[in-house]
Amino acid sequence: MFNIVLVNPQIHTNTGSIGRMCVNSGCKLHIIKPLGFEIDDKHLRRAGLDYWAKLDPKIWDSLEQFLSINTKFKDRFFFATTKTNQLYFNAKFQKGDFIFFGSETSGLPLDLMRLNKENRITIPMTNDGRSLNLATSVGIVTYEAIRQNIDEFDFRDEICEF
């Protein structure tokens, strides 16, 4: 559905939760090193529960390596950041887009966001907080992108009836 790109994630439980969400939303997870944890960390797998085996994340050694392969898609790069006023729900997402999220401690590199600064997006927040949890932010933006492309989303077959 979409490509979720985590640039230098620092907290294993966030990455595990995002991996679980990617499996359930049909998204491809790209994880760009360096990381703040070991990729085989038992806590990472625990946060992703039994979903981690279904995830098949693409692990990149560096941002440069990722960009050397994927820069041709830069028109479809979206950058989640607090450094813009463009709200995420005003972006026009398409199947296959790359949605970037930075590390919990420093966000996305400014040089990266310059590749397509028109596609910087933010989640509205009050002045009382600095930022949202990374896994929460990824979920909010991803499901808005799915909402915009719902006709292409592959729902599960069984439906719960009450």
From TrEMBL:
Main location (coarse class): cytoplasm
Natural source organism: Campylobacter hyointestinalis subsp. hyointestinalis
Gene Ontology biological process terms in this record: wobble position ribose methylation
Reactions the enzyme catalyzes: 5-carboxymethylaminomethyluridine(34) in tRNA(Leu) + S-adenosyl-L-methionine = 5-carboxymethylaminomethyl-2'-O-methyluridine(34) in tRNA(Leu) + S-adenosyl-L-homocysteine + H(+); cytidine(34) in tRNA + S-adenosyl-L-methionine = 2'-O-methylcytidine(34) in tRNA + S-adenosyl-L-homocysteine + H(+)
EC number(s) stated in the UniProt entry for this protein: 2.1.1.207
Localization per record: Cytoplasm
InterPro entries attached to this UniProt entry: Alpha/beta_knot_MTases, SpoU_MeTrfase, TrmL, tRNA_m1G_MTases_N
Domain tRNA/rRNA methyltransferase SpoU type: 2-143
Role of this protein: Could methylate the ribose at the nucleotide 34 wobble position in tRNA.
GO molecular function: identical protein binding; RNA binding; S-adenosylmethionine-dependent methyltransferase activity; tRNA methyltransferase activity
One annotated Gene Ontology cellular component of this protein: cytoplasm
Pfam family, one: SpoU_methylase
Designated name of the protein: Putative tRNA (cytidine(34)-2'-O)-methyltransferase
Alphabetical keyword list: Cytoplasm, Methyltransferase, S-adenosyl-L-methionine, Transferase, tRNA processing
Protein family membership: Belongs to the class IV-like SAM-binding methyltransferase superfamily. RNA methyltransferase TrmH family. TrmL subfamily.
Residues annotated to bind S-adenosyl-L-methionine: 102, 123, 131
PANTHER family for the chain: TRNA (CYTIDINE(34)-2'-O)-METHYLTRANSFERASE (PTHR42971)
